[in-house]
Amino acid sequence: MTDRLSEIVESAEAEQIATGFVFTEGPLWHPDGYLLFVDIRRSQIFRLVPGGEPELVRENSGESNGMTFDLHGRQVVCEMINRQVTRLEDDGSYSVLADSWNGQRINRPNDVVGRSDGSLYFTNPGRERLDPADVVMQFNSVHRIRPDGTIDMIVPGFEYPNGIAFSPDESVLYVANTRPGQYILAYDLDSDGNVSGVRHFADMPSESADNGVPDGMKVDIEGRVYCTGPDGCWVFEPSGELVGIIRLPEYPANCGWGGPENRTMYFTANTSIYSMVMKTPGTAIPSA
User: Fold this and answer.
1) pTM of the model
2) CA-CA distance, 238 to 92, in Å (whole number)?
3) How many CA atoms lie within 13 A of 113 on its CB side?
4) For residue range 1-18, what is the model confidence (pLDDT) as tens digits?
5) Pair 98, 108: CB distance under 8 Å
6) Which of 85, 241, 252, 267 is most exposed by smallest CB count within 10 Å?
């Protein structure tokens, strides 16, 4: 660990807290004190109480991926195979929040983040992975679900949008591009949450995708961006300057804040879940 990372990371090394999966993703800390995560390849969602064993809570989840909570604490899920964003209702059913835009079926929603006004922003990549006969939307994109259910196009024509996160004051929306190019873009937002400008935030190059690509993102309360990618989790200052790469036993695909004081970072990394304590808390998921 570099000297600069030691100013940010409190744990001496990553702790493996669960293993035996195919491809873990979507870490989401529940306020009741447990971690939710998915095993994409098996289309399963698990609950993990720290110190306990993972408990299967949903089968056949449509290759669920990124997850968050809405303002009322209801779980929101990106279902890639089902090509929809859903919400877990109080009665245990799932309602569809988004499956199309402007009459066009969306591609493979990947990750989702909530804003304090109740809107949800999600990335919509993956048309390259669909049967050409099933592709209606001829581009990848980023969308917003308004509180009234309206679906907006926020970013059209993005190469391969993946991870997504807000700055602490929600004035910037970060979007990771998985391929080609491997980079993060920063979109300036106006007070209504619309894009007012864009800049190239950071590059995350590698010679091979076998050791990870720009993927899941989170932000701490000081505005640092944590993005999983080649060889580990890359940490950037709000300026885009690279602080360093947090190395783990397996390369991570996503990360999520949780634990006491919201200072524990949970990493979904291939077959396992790892945790590390940071010195700075993460930004909290907005709630009513």
Assistant:
1) 0.96
2) 39
3) 25
4) 556 899 999 999 999 999
5) no
6) 241
